[in-house]
Amino acid sequence: MFNTPIISVVDDDECILISLDSLLRSYGYTVKTYNSAYAFLQSSGPEQTDCLISDIQMPGMCGVKMYEALAARNIHIPTLFITGKSGMPPKFSDKVRQPEGYFAKPFNTNALLACIEAILKRRGQC
Predict the structure, then answer these.
(1) What is the pTM assigned to this prediction?
(2) Any idea which architecture 6-122 has in CATH?
(3) How far is it, in rounded angstroms, from Cα 72 to Cα 67?
(4) What is the pLDDT of residues 43-95, one digit of tens each?
(5) Which of 3, 54, 70, 74 could form a disulfide with 10 if both were Cys (CB 3.0 to 4.6 A apart)?
(6) Is residue 73 left, alpha or beta, with left meaning phi > 0 and alpha meaning psi from -120 to 50?
(7) How far is residue 77's CA from residue 80's CA, in Å, rounded to a whole number?
(8) Around Cβ 1, how many Cβ atoms within 10 Å?
C-alpha cells in the first residue's frame, strides 16, 4: 500500500500555516501544521514526519533550537527553514546534520516544492 509522505509545517504565523497547508495538499501531500516548536516536539509529529518545514524565528523555542532538540533525540528529519529575516543562515555544530535548505519569506513556492520533491526522491518516497 502506498503511503503519502507527511510534511509537517511549524510556524507561529497562521497565514503561513494555512497557505502552506493548502499548497502542499494540492500537490497530494499529507500535511500536519503546528503553531510552535513546543507543539511539534510534544506531538507524535517528529516520528511521523518525512519532511519538516519550520520558521526560524518563533516565540518560545525558535526553529533552530527545535532542530537541535530533535537531533538530541536522534531524530533526523530532512528540514527546510523559512525565515522573514535576511542574512546568513544559522550555523550548526558538526554533530548536527545540516538542514536541507533555507527560504526567505516571501519564498518561491516552485523552489520550495522542488526541494521537497528532491528530498522525498532521495528517501524513496516520491
Answers:
(1) 0.90
(2) 3-Layer(aba) Sandwich (3.40)
(3) 9
(4) 999 999 999 999 999 999 999 999 999 999 999 999 999 988 766 566 666 66
(5) 54
(6) alpha
(7) 10
(8) 2
pLDDT value, residue 96: 63
User: In angstroms, rounded to a whole number, what is the distance separating the alpha carbons of residues 40 and 25?
Assistant: 19
- Cell triple for residue 96? 548536527
**Bond preceding residue 106 cis, omega within 30 of 0:** yes
